[in-house]
Amino acid sequence: MSPLRRLFYYLDRHRASLLAGFVCIAISGAFSLAKPMIVGNAVNDLVKVVTRGTLIRYGLLLIGVAAVEGLFLFLQRRIIVGASRRIEFEMRNDFYDHLLKLPVRYYQEQRTGDLMSRATSDIGGVRTLIGPAVMYTINSLIIVSGAFAMMIRIDKTLALISLAAVPVVAVMVKTFGEKIHVRYKAVQDYFGDISARVQENLAGVRVVRAFGQEANEREIFGRMNREYVTRNRAQIRLTATFYPMLHGLIGVMYGIVFLLGSRRMLAGQLSIGDFVALQFYLGRMIWPLIALGWVINLYQRGMASMVRLHEVWSIPPDVLRDAGTPVEEKPRGDIDIRDLTFGYAPAEGRPTLRNINLQVQSGETVGIVGRTGSGKSTLLALLTRTFEPPPETIFIDGRPIESIPLRQLREWIGMVPQETFLFSESIAENVRFGRDTASPDEITESTDLAGLTSDVASFPQGLETVIGERGITLSGGQKQRTAIARALVREPTILILDDALSAVDTATEERILSALRDIRKGRTALIVSHRVSSVKDADHIIVLDEGKIVERGTHDTLLAHDGYYADLYRRQTLEEELEETA
Amino acid sequence: MADIEKHEDEGGKAFDPHLARRLLRYLRPYRLRATMSVVLVIISSLTEIAGPAIIAIAVDLFVKPFAGAQPVGVSSRIAEWLAAHGWTMTPLQGIDVAAGLYFATLGANFVVLYTQMVMMNLMGQYIMYDLRKEIFGHLQKLDIQYFDRNPVGRLMTRVTTDVDALNEMFTAGFVAIFGDIFVLLGIIVVLFWMNWRMAVVLFSITPLILLVSIWFRRGARVTYRQVRVRIAAINAFLQEHISGMSTVQLFNREEKEREKFDGLNARHRDANIDSIFYYAVFYPLIELIETVGIALIVWYGGGQVIRGTLSIGALIAFFTYAQRFYEPISDLSEKYNILQAAMAASERVFKLLDTEVWIKDEGTLEVNHLDSIEFKNVWFAYNDDDWVLKNVSFAVQRGERVALVGHTGAGKTTVTALLQRFYDPQRGMILINGLDIRRYTQASLRALFAVVQQDFFLFTGTVAQNISLGDPRIGENAVREAATRVQADRFISRLPQQYQSEVRERGAGFSVGEKQLLSFARALAFNPPVLVLDEATSSIDTETELLIQEAIQALMEGRTSIVIAHRLSTIRSADTILVFHHGEIRERGTHDELMRIDGLYRKLYEIQYRETVAATA
């Protein structure tokens, strides 16, 4: 689908209201063009002998015509702009829907700000094209051609001269409009540079002060500030030329009508009423003329936005999402990893994971330790299919993981990621994120298990307390425990904690772990941690280093082995002692 | 949601005499320009109003569009005046003269309007320049504590958005108000002059316009605020859900989140459709009122023409002016909002400018060499009684190396901050060469130290600029020499444009080790007598680690140094090690002495350096 085709797809869905809108434009335009004629006739009648009654009739006729015109003006705006808002709504929904289907790896390369600006300002740009731009175009065309037709009836020469103004004004508005827009953007960009500079100065205030650079910074800022004024000057000149010029051009049109019109009146070729009507028609044409030039720019910007949206729409959604055959029976949670080797960019460098073999039975707990960058998180990402593992390397309940529909796989898994991501909603909402059918009791139960109860009790609205910018700020540990509750409420077959207790103190950690032990029946658990205390009771402990399993066993066998794990254990015991001396 | 709506657009006073007087001070340097602008605005309103009057009079005097048409009122007086001066013209000549006059006013209007717009907008720019300069300058002086308490984003708003609101007031608001008022006044005067009865009838619809305009502005503002709140909600949602996309997908929440978004999106759509209502009513209504005005002219003015008390030209003039006086009235009601926003912005800006600086030069002594540093019973807290340093005392003699060790949060970094007088201690004293540091100028005091912080703050700009910080005293050679001594030149020479390579925001693209070497080079380039170093804890590859160790040795050479040390090599080469624990110095001595005590230091040492010991052993 091309950007244009996509645009028409949306327009087509609203063709009835758009057509109705166009009809309203035509009607209001026709009535609007009748008014100068009425005034002209009235003035002509003044020359003859008229009664005040006739004049009142003219006045009432004018008001009546204006009322009808107004009604249809009202309708045209409501219908067309309303339709454009509905189209905007549909496009934004569809856009977001598309975003939801894109694979996670897409988001690792994409800046959030960029996607945001597409979802908001670009869709807004397309909306302006569909609504105001289309409305003004049709309106302008009808008024300009209508006024021209009426003027031709009155005086051909004058009409033609006025017609000549159409391209002049439209081109002028278009060129200046575009130039002003470009210049404006350039000025704004430079202002962005200044902002960035100030931002850095403020963020790096200690460096600036430590090296005594205040004067120098003032000097640099002063220079940029001056440059900004200079750049603005060009922009100001442009605007200051454009507006009076437009003003002047319109004045010239009136002047010409006066000059030629009065000569014709002297020659008896033009009645005073028609002269008045001509002036009124000229007045009617001004705004449509300006609008014509203006909308050309709106079209250009709108289409550019449409292209930018189309870029995102053309990215295929994750096709593997819906592949696989649904599993009928209840999952057990056996995990079997066979000779797994994986690299993010296979072409370059060493794979992130090498020859991983691991068998876990349902109900068992695996502890995974290792340095930063040893491949722990990658292993978990493959297990949740955030990244696709090579085929036939990971099996759950004996099925290759890629044959299980993604939805179902993720339903089985309760994941607590390393970087806790919570939403700015209430705690209860955040927990319910795990399973939206969870009852209030189930939510309390899982916050209980996650050791969050006493914290929640201290919050102003308990579980309904909103977190984030609009509410309270949770500590790192509270965030992690909320994320644990969120994972637990899923009643997952496989529970994954990715360094999920790092911000929790050891006593709380112990309490959570023992609570988890009680509910671990029938669940498989994977616990990644930097802390020995989190994994020491696991059924299997593996130590990863540079993508390979370098040690495996239980706490006791690994201590006896006296390797990385044993060393880690000793250091952490010392650290605890030190805390106690405090 | 209700809270946001309150914060978004709090209506405040549109005029506050105190703030206004203070704002006027910024106008003072440009008072000539400002006065000129006002004068030009008046002239441009006059030229704008003159056109239709000229046409009207010409029609009366020369065209005489129907039998028996006689100039009345203004036109007849002008006709008499022309005759008295002996200026007689044929109708054709008259029309040419009138057209000439008309085009002349057009030309004048163009020139005046252009000059006035350029002048006024430039003045706005100059005032903004002054304001920004003042705000930025003040920010360079404010206490570090102020920056601890005010997030950068908020301060940025003062320099950008708030200054913009003031510009709007100085340009669009201030002078434009004069413009609107003068055009309006001009039209009123001309129409009354032509025929006061007709003018009264026509202006009887003014209150209607005013009412409709106020109704519209008020309604449009309310709905606009709604729209803004709701688009903000969409933005916040998108921001969160795009960053948290993996969480959404992991928890199979696509469907639910789609529904939620649909809800927000629909609310935004509905708010917009509500706002269409005001626009859809306003424009046709104004059009209708305008037509009522024209109908009044046809009815009442027509009657006067018939009776010969209104000339046909005046009738035409009424038609023209009737279409022109809606705009200024409608505009005036908008100015209120601009003033309101400007008052709120100026209040915030002035509050920043009024923030007092506590850490000031209390003496004029310049210090340019170092004999000794001494902390004497120093107590310090960032907040109230939350002591970060408790009764800390130690002394460093010229040429000594002191290592500060201890857990994170033990108060080590605070020691270096106090030394540079980023804060003043609540109790106790810090002495340099035996004198309280408050007696020295801040500039000379800070110039004693080369500081390398933990987070290696890099600025955007070139590599060379990051080393010299753009300080004109540090030339190209000094930059190269410094880089070479800390062995940063090796990776710099591999960069595409060497020293002229661009550093992106926050040093993105450089490894931690490279950033570290760059900040070492920076410290060395300034070549001060004392090195204050906060060593990074981050682990790096062995090769870079060696480079860094060598660089640190080069930095410490021939200098007094105070190092928050994490590297064993740095600690071992120290003359004194101060062990900080919960804000106190708990142990002090050399490495060997402290190891013998078997206390805190030994434990710390075993936690942090066991591995290194094992590796080097």
Verbal overview:
The complex is a heterodimer of chains A (582) and B (617). Chain A has 582 residues and is of the alpha/beta class. Helices cover 66% and strands 9% of the residues of chain A. In chain A, the strands form two sheets. A six-stranded mixed sheet of chain A has the order 6-7-8-3-9-10, sandwiched between helices. Chain A starts with a helix and ends with a helix. The mean pLDDT of chain A is 84. With 617 residues, chain B is α/β, with parallel strands linked by helices. Helix content of chain B is 65%, strand content 11%. Chain B contains 23 helices and twelve strands. In chain B, strands 6-9-10-3-11-12 form a six-stranded mixed sheet, sandwiched between helices. A four-stranded antiparallel sheet of chain B has the order 2-1-4-5, covered by helices on one side. Chain B has a two-stranded antiparallel ribbon with strand order 7-8. In chain B, helix 20 links the parallel strand 9 and strand 10. In chain B, helix 3 packs antiparallel against helix 5 and helix 8 packs antiparallel against helix 11. The radius of gyration of chain B is 37 Å and the shape is elongated. The N terminus and C terminus of chain B are likely disordered. At the A-B interface, helix 2, helix 3, helix 5, helix 6 and helix 7 of A face helix 3, helix 5, helix 7, helix 9 and helix 10 of B.
Q: Calculate Rg of chain B over CA atoms.
A: 37 Å
Topology order of chain A in helix (H) and strand (E) letters: HHHHHHHHHEEEHEEHEHHHHEHEHEEHH
Main interface pair? Answer: A-B, 134 and 134 residues
Strand content of chain A: 5-15%
Give the structural class of chain A.
alpha/beta
Helix content of chain B: 55-70%
Number of strands of chain A: 10
Specify the helix fraction band of chain A. Answer: 55-70%
